[in-house]
Design a protein that fits this description.
It is a single chain. The chain has one helix and 35 strands. The strands form eight sheets. It has a five-stranded antiparallel beta sheet with strand order 1-4-5-6-7. A five-stranded mixed beta sheet has the order 2-29-30-31-32, with no helix packed on it. Strands 16-17-18-19-23 form a five-stranded mixed beta sheet, with no helix packed on it. The longest helix is centred in the first third of the chain and has 4 residues. The two termini are 29 Å apart. Strand 8 and strand 9 form a beta hairpin.
Amino acid sequence: MRPPQPGRLPWLAGAACLLLALAAPFPTAGGDLAARGWPWWRGPLGNGVSPDGDPPLRWSEKQNVRFKVALDGDGLATPVVWGGRIYVLSAVSVESGPGATPATDAAGVPLVRQRYLVTAYDRRDGSLAWRRVAIERTPHESRHLESGWATASPVTDGERLYAHFGSAGTFAYTLDGELLWKVDLGDMTARLGYGEGSSPALWGETLVINWDHEGDSFVVALDARTGAERWRQKRPGELSSWSTPLVREHEGRAQAIVAGAGRTRSYDIRSGEVLWSVSGLGMNVIPTPTYDAGILYLASGKRDSPRMQAVDLRGARGDLDATGAVLWTRDRDTPYVSTPLLYRGQLYFFRHTSSFLTSVDAATGKTHFTERTDLGNVFASPVAAAGRIYIVGRDGKALVLAPGPRLEVLATNQLEDGFDASPVVVGRDLYLRGRRFLYALARSGED
């Protein structure tokens, strides 16, 4: 997902070791998971790591591009991939009648009627497999100038595709495009009209949605088969956030973890019971929590309240603030929009939305480096595969890095589009969803 520009942010949208695969909420039966897909915006392990991916090291408009297809409409969400298809969400402005002037909000964003699209592309050549109009409606409130109307990433369980357009509704389709159900959760009121961005999270047959806004905030769990509400919990004291929930099984219990400026809370996935909570983040929380081996990593990066913390969840119950569960904290150079990458014992993240990349030791929080990467502004989250880290900027430049305690650039690449959605790695393919085009990058030679 893509957030607002610096100074007006926000809104939005983290190798963990392979043991994390044992707790992955996505289907693993029926073949090689890495070859089959990237089912959530942070990948098959839920942390931005492709366990078996090996995408190209170098690319350009003339090198290692298998296809480049024009996208229909505006969209900032990271695509998902399953089997032979890539699934993309977007919104197209529907022109008013002759002489009609659309209403505008205080920021000058025209409130034009939108056609919300769900599109499936063929992974082989980028051809259109199917496209559906989820809904047409005029947005009820503003969005940030750097944002869009289709901001949340979809998710799939290998049987159904879940497309969440926030206030415009949540929709479930078969992977062939048949609408199964739709749910309207109401209209959000986002802080300063920044817009919406939290993506749904999936565990088994439960879909979890974060509804933090300036009204009555809540988290809700829907039955993935029918859309029926399984449980709903109020989130007292929480204002707008754009963080996507993380669902993980910990100590035999599946937990939906929702980060917030007031408190980060964990909910039992079956009942909605609050299991534990912890304070410590700043305002405008956007990054998705990252989990590995019983430790949770949380981040927020608003300029006046940068925060990051590592929380030990072993035996976690109730209020964790005075228990010593917080292992380390950080109050500088933390990410505002993108989610940190945890890879081979290190956390990698950007300062606010700048190109300064920081690496810290995940166990201690000790800084390894903070270096400028010359990417310009960055909204996309880092991903990792085959012992390499992939980062992309808003101006179309991308870097491939070697993991480690020093910044080591293996390759610098440039495309003609700009990128706010995060990279997607499936097998030997790297997919980049730009503002105008969808790229499939694959090795055609040595690289």
